[in-house]
Structure of Protoplast secreted protein 2:
Amino acid sequence: MVKVFVITYSTYGHVNTVAESVVKGLEKGGVEVGRYQIAETLSDEILTKMHAPPKADIPIIDPKNLPEADGFLFGFPTRYGTTPAQVKTFFDATGSLWTKQALAGKPAGFFFSTASQHGGQEVTVFTSLPILAHHGIIYVPFGYAHPHLFDNSEVVGGSAWGAGTVANGDGSRQPTQKELEIAEAQGENFASVAKKLAA
């Protein structure tokens, strides 16, 4: 069976909530899912000062295990329009895979969380594309494949680049039902692409 890794970094839990719906969509699409999180680089002292909750009980991904998957969906919050330092550290540790082109030809997509509607959901993915290009990983955008992405009656995270949520600056807003439905649809769509490429 085709295997897709869902790999997240989440400080306050919003991305992990979206990931649950992504996983649901992948499983609905008929692929095996491996669920992982990226290691934290901040100290417990700093995280306490940030009022961050304890990390979810999800296995830490070791970069050397990436070749075991047929595809990847990465989820993380934006930091000034790019990846958080934790995610950058993770990708910086994939050099040995790059030298062997061990991930070339595998598909990947993204989902994300921002503090505001214009907090960088699209540009965060855009600034991550060079990582995929250097590995030869095939970027799979979501497109406007769900009607909620056309909904202008309320704040709805996500775009053609992937599912998303808007958390507010204080993290008080949780992913909405519409955002979670978009995430599930992205998972199901990605499963279809991953299966075709694996064939």
Observations:
- The chain has a mean pLDDT of 95.
- Strands lie at 3-8, 32-37, 71-77, 107-114, 138-139, 164-166.
